[in-house]
Amino acid sequence: DEDQDILELHSAIKNAVNRENLLHTRLQELESRLGVAIEAAELGWQALIKEDKLLARIELLENQLEIFTRNPTEDQNKIIQLENEKHDYQIHAKDSLRAICLEKSDVARKMYGLGKPFNHS
Fold first, then answer.
1. What pLDDT was estimated at residue 18?
2. Cα distance between the two ends of the chain
3. In Å, what is the CA distance from 98 to each residue of 44, 45, 54?
4. What is the mean pLDDT of residues 10-27?
5. What value does the mean pLDDT take over residues 25-40?
6. How far apart are CA 64 and CA 53, in angstroms?
7. Please, are residues 66 and 80 in contact by the beta-carbon 8 Å criterion?
8. To 10 degrees, the CA torsion angle through 79, 81, 82, 88?
9. Are the CB atoms for 92 and 29 separated by under 8 Å?
10. Vertex 31, ends 45 and 37: CA angle to 5°?
């Protein structure tokens, strides 16, 4: 009877160790997938910002073309200057927003990284 209890206890411990190993493997896989998802999100965000900058530049050039194709006026240079200032301001604002988002992402990644050691103990 005692031998049977020892065998059952051994079997239970072996099953628990196997479940723990399986859970650890799954956790590593999820962490890996999360890292890939975070990287993909950052790349997508950067691509979106680059696209937006290009579209803003195209809009600026289209506006300048429209100004130059109109009848020449004394205000053309002033309008072009204002368009350039508007474009520069928009780019600066977008760069600031990008920097803030990257900082937020870095903080989130660091917080996630700090939580890892506690989850594995």
1. 96
2. 36
3. 12, 9, 15
4. 95
5. 89
6. 17
7. no
8. 150
9. no
10. 20
Q: What are phi and psi of 70, to 5 degrees?
A: -70, 175
Query: Token pair 């990287």 is at which residue?
Result: 39
Q: pLDDT at position 74, please?
A: 65
Tokens of 48: 């979106």
Backbone φ and ψ for 74, nearest 5 degrees, come out as -70, -25
CA 106 to chain centre: 9
Q: With 90 as the cut, is the pLDDT of residue 10 above it?
A: yes
Model confidence, pTM: 0.53
Map tokens 């109109």 to a residue: 70
Tokens of 85: 């200032």
Q: How far apart are CA 55 and CA 48, in angstroms?
A: 10
DSSP assignment, residue 1?
-
**Can you read off the two tokens belonging to residue 43?**
């790349």
CA–CA separation, 120 and 25 (whole Å): 11
Phi, psi of 89 (to 5 degrees): -65, -45
